[in-house]
């Protein structure tokens, strides 16, 4: 029997998948994976549970939840060699999409029990691991509002619209693998995968195994940005002339103006330095 620590965020499980939990655990156990459950929704508690699982010799750790839960669990496994299984039931499941994982929980569990793994790249920004993207500028300003809207606070939509309309382009300095450039932009995104945020296709050519990060630079009017994000849900690629994409192993973004920034939704400070750690996380894949 392989031993697995299954870490669940109880809030979304209760809302979306509680009635599936016995079937999923039985499927895993019948396939030779003994499951120990850990329910927690606090980031520090999730990290502690993952570290404890690695120290206690668990063969694998499974994250059950959305991108936030998966990201927290994955951060504790970087560089350990302990493989990560994902049971996706979040709102957008960007990390699962980036790994081509099935969204059906039973099929996701089967991918774990079959035992096929892949070592994937991880980004780190100012010491914070990220598995989707880092944003500097507009999306970092809108991200907390978007999280409240996702939780049902639809009155925040007006606040989000006003923040979008009031945001201005900022002068930024970028250094990509030692080469410097200056630009005026409302938003620069450094992506490790194709999808991020509210299910947006941000970097269609991104790969989680190429040892590179995608740098997406917006030089767009507001109506162009609105059009882009309206028509770029998951699995749809949209090309806008005002968007350019570059690749690098290490990127530093700075600005004389105060700018918000985030790494997978976690606030970070500008200047921000992003780099890739090649093939540092082992995950179960189909």
Description:
The chain is α+β, with helices and mostly antiparallel strands and 286 residues long. It folds into 2 domains: 114 residues, Rossmann fold; 152 residues, Tumour Suppressor Smad4. The chain is 31% helix and 35% strand. It is built from 9 helices and 18 strands. A 6-stranded antiparallel sheet has the order 6-5-18-15-8-9, with helices on one face. It has a 6-stranded antiparallel sheet with strand order 14-13-10-7-16-17. Helix 7 runs antiparallel to helix 8. It is globular. The two termini are 21 Å apart.
Question: How are the SSEs placed, and which strands pair?
Answer:
Blueprint: E1 2-8, H1 10-17, H2 21-30, E2 33-39, H3 43-55, E3 60-65, H4 67-77, E4 84-88, H5 94-98, H6 105-114, E5 117-125, E6 128-130, E7 133-137, H7 138-150, H8 156-166, E8 170-176, E9 179-185, E10 187-191, E11 195-196, E12 200-201, E13 213-218, H9 222-230, E14 243-248, E15 250-254, E16 261-263, E17 266-268, E18 272-284
Parallel strand pairs: 1-2, 1-3, 3-4
Antiparallel strand pairs: 5-6, 5-18, 7-10, 7-16, 8-9, 8-15, 10-13, 11-12, 13-14, 15-18, 16-17
